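Exercise 7. Given the encoded structure of a 423-residue chain, write a plausible sequence.
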């Protein structure tokens, strides 16, 4: 089997290359035992990384011959290339990834199947990237420069970081099944009631705010890792860290913002009565407690916190200390007021999407002038998801009721419902 010059360059750079004629992803497996291919554990996902030059969508692969030392590969898709977009649409629809391990002596073929959840997330991330691409002038999207930014700031293992593997969950389940056999039934029922109540309270929030919830978890994880990195690097010499953080704030915040931040820090420290000095072990209480706010001061803290630092200043500081790759470029956010009104009047998402495609020239250009019914299923779902996200963002931006909240607040219908006919 021969590889083209472009495939060889991709294999050298990414460890992976897409054979566009067959849709197979080639993996550089040279120097590794060919016998390991059959039993190697494969974890794959589609990731979206926003950069200052535009979005990058990439397929990340973690392939482990042995668990402690996995191998990482990735392939970035150029969203300007129609054949790359076609491959992404098929991957998001089927979740099937065909792999060819190039061993130097030949090739070994394997097929990996994404789980239902990861397939759904792939479709969401691809749709989000296309929506972001819409906000960029056609001649402004620079794939090569965006890829350089990604490779400079991101690490593939971080995108694929996880603790639990599927086999780990199976092992945990077996241990719990064995341990719970001796537990009284009333204890199990009480535990189930407790978890069930928590789930009933959380699941509606998760369904309505899944995207933001997951993004906040990702930011929290990166922030915690950054704190641990700072501790590792500056643990024995905190003075450079103080200089780094103080200069970063000075370069990011205005004088008035710095004054408000200083007042807030002084207030919180005096309130909690912290003493940042070494104490003998005998004086340290074995139980840690969170200081409670005295009665009447809660409103004052909220007021001080309310005089917030601007989003631009905060974003600039985070970029300086390495917590962001870059902002999202583009024109002002699109107006989805018409689609919002249609949805709130009772139209289905399919009807709203069909009308948006018929009326929006940029969508007609993207989908080659086809109407909604002429699109294949993956394009219909991708476009419907994009319109839905645009309507929801419009509602949040304008402080309007969300379509999901409106549906939940409506009284149950009496008698037969009159459905709006699908055209």
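Solution.
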């Amino acid at each position: 089997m021969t590889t083209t010059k472009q495939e060889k360059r991709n294999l050298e750079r990414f460890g992976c290359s897409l054979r566009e004629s067959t849709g197979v992803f080639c993996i550089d497996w040279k120097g590794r035992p060919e016998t390991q291919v059959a039993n190697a554990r494969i974890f794959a996902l589609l990731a979206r990384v926003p950069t200052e030059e535009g979005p990058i969508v990439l397929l990340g692969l973690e392939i482990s011959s042995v668990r402690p030392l996995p191998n990482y590969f990735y392939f970035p898709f150029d969203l300007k290339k129609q054949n790359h977009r076609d491959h992404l649409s098929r991957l998001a629809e089927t979740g099937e990834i065909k792999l060819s391990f190039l061993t130097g002596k030949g090739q070994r073929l394997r097929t990996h199947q994404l789980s239902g959840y990861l397939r759904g997330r792939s479709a969401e991330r691809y749709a989000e990237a296309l929506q972001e691409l819409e906000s960029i002038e056609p001649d402004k999207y620079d794939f090569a420069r965006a890829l350089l930014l990604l490779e400079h700031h991101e690490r593939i293992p971080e995108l694929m970081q996880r603790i639990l593997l599927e086999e780990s969950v199976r092992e945990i389940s077996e241990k719990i099944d064995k341990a719970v056999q001796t537990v009284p039934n009333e204890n199990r029922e009480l535990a189930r009631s407790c978890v069930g109540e928590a789930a009933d309270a959380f699941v509606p929030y998760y369904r309505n705010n899944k995207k933001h919830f997951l993004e906040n978890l990702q930011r929290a994880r990166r922030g915690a890792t950054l704190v641990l990195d700072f501790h590792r690097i500056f643990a024995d010499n905190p003075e450079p860290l103080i200089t780094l953080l103080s200069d970063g704030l000075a370069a990011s915040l205005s004088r008035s913002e710095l004054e408000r931040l200083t007042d807030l820090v002084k207030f919180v420290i005096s309130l909690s009565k912290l003493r940042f000095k070494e104490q003998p072990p005998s004086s340290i209480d074995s139980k840690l407690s969170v200081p409670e706010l005295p009665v009447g001061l809660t409103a004052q803290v909220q007021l001080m916190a309310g005089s917030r630092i601007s989003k631009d200043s905060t974003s600039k500081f985070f970029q300086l200390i390495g917590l962001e790759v870059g902002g999202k470029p583009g024109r002002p956010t699109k107006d989805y007021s018409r689609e919002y009104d249609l949805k709130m009047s009772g139209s289905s998402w399919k009807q709203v999407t069909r009308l948006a495609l018929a009326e929006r020239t940029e969508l007609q250009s993207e989908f080659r002038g086809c109407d909604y019914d002429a699109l294949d299923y993956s394009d219909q779902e991708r476009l419907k998801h994009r319109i839905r996200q645009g309507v929801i963002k419009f509602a949040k931006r304008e402080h309007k009721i969300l379509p999901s909240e409106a549906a939940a607040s409506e009284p149950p219908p009496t008698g037969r419902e009159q459905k709006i006919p699908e055209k």
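Remark. The beta strands are 16-19, 24-28, 41-51, 54-64, 71-77, 96-102, 107-113. Students should compare their own answers with the one above.
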